[in-house]
Amino acid sequence: MSGKPKLLVVDDERGTLEAMARFLRRRFDVETASDGIQAAQLIARHDYDLVLTDLRMPGADGMSVLDETLKKEPRPLCLILSAYGTVESAVEAVKRGAFDFMVKPVNLERLSLLIDRALETRDLRSENRALKARLSQDDRNSGIVAQSRVMRDILSLVKQVAPSRSTVLLTGESGTGKEVMAQALHEWSGRTGRFVPVHCAALPATLLESELFGHEKGAFTGATEARKGRFELAEGGTLFLDEIGEIDLAIQVKLLRVLETRTFERLGGTETLKSDARIVAATDRELEKMVAEGTFREDLFYRLNVVNIKLPGLRDRREDIPMLIRRFLDVLAAENDRPMLKIAPDALAALERYSWPGNIRELRNCVERMVVLARSDTLELADVPENVRNGSVAAAGGDATAPELDLVGNERRLIEQALSAAHGNRTLAAQALGISRRTLHRRLNEYAASGHPID
């Protein structure tokens, strides 16, 4: 195999045919045909990347050759050569499927450029077809449930921005699936590097800096050897910065520099390293409010907020709840070595009515509890946790001012119930609610700051 694009050149004028073939063989694998009939036979037997054919030939003309290329699979591109008086026919050939045409006498340099453009277009179309096929398969494998209109729109946006290098900021309440969406962005991006997550809230500032940028040997007590940071590990891939709103101002400055210059140094190092990692950040906090308060840098916010994708709370995508439940049932049954479980209609209805302040995370925790405690192969209404059975509802077409639709009030009551059930243990209460301990702590601080603390 030569590796060169394979061309078929067709012309009944021998001198023109030989001159074009001799010029094009400098860069391409070229075969020739002196008429349309011979060309049709060659096209039937061989695969070509491009067919270059004269329009006016005795017997089978250029239109016939074009028809043969359109029937061939894989389909070669077709360029038409046309004398001045046949331009109208050449235009008609383009309408029928030819890539383009060139008027004789042929300028060989211009012809070479036209062939390059045609082959580049062919490659792009091939990549697009492959990407669409991959995206279609990824839709089935991504783990994202998108029955609701709002989620279908979000997935469409994610697929549109995934192949770019643009920084993406995922916002929304805790538990809405921001990391799963970040993974989908990476999978659909075509990037060959790794997906590297960093949970910023889980690390103090000193450790976070080392985690992100790495460190050299002796950079600090305990640094017995050099270590790559997450930016290096995510080279050519995606770096996911979860809970970005929790990082302190000193780290924000260094992160801003990476976003602006794509360069950084390891902790304790002097060598400037380059980063090709694509940044996806996530937060459940209002960064604009933090900017106004001076706790988050405005310039960093704008660098992160190139594409903002807000994920809805589960109460705003109730159409997805049944499919999420079925997916969780399948996964959890396998994890707990149980047979496939069914769910009774009234139990499913109760789960659909609940407001899910902890969103998908809370729903999964709830389903897991039901699976573990189930006494039969069908989950009944009695298997649904009491706080869910008796929790807030969002009755379609109901009174928007009804007490059960008071989201803020219901959230407070749920937090109070969870803390009471956990005997004040905030970690256990957060787990029961399906939210992080940090989120629970922030909610409690907000209630206290408003003058209505939860004891």
From TrEMBL:
Tagged with keyword Transcription: yes
- Supply the Pfam families for this chain: AAA_lid_14, HTH_8, Response_reg, Sigma54_activat
**Where does the Sigma-54 factor interaction domain start and stop, copy by copy?**
144-372
| The entry's keywords | Activator, ATP-binding, DNA-binding, Nucleotide-binding, Transcription, Transcription regulation
Q: Which segments constitute the Response regulatory domain?
A: 6-119
Q: Which CDD domains match?
A: AAA (cd00009)
InterPro entries assigned to the protein according to its UniProt record, in alphabetical order = AAA+_ATPase (IPR003593), AAA_lid_NorR (IPR058031), CheY-like_superfamily (IPR011006), Homeodomain-like_sf (IPR009057), HTH_Fis (IPR002197), P-loop_NTPase (IPR027417), Sig_transdc_resp-reg_receiver (IPR001789), Sigma_54_int (IPR002078)
For biological process, the GO terms are: phosphorelay signal transduction system; regulation of DNA-templated transcription
Give the Gene Ontology MF terms in alphabetical order: ATP binding; sequence-specific DNA binding
Q: Which PANTHER family match?
A: SIGMA FACTOR (PTHR32071:SF122), TRANSCRIPTIONAL REGULATORY PROTEIN (PTHR32071)
Q: Which named protein is this?
A: Regulatory protein AtoC
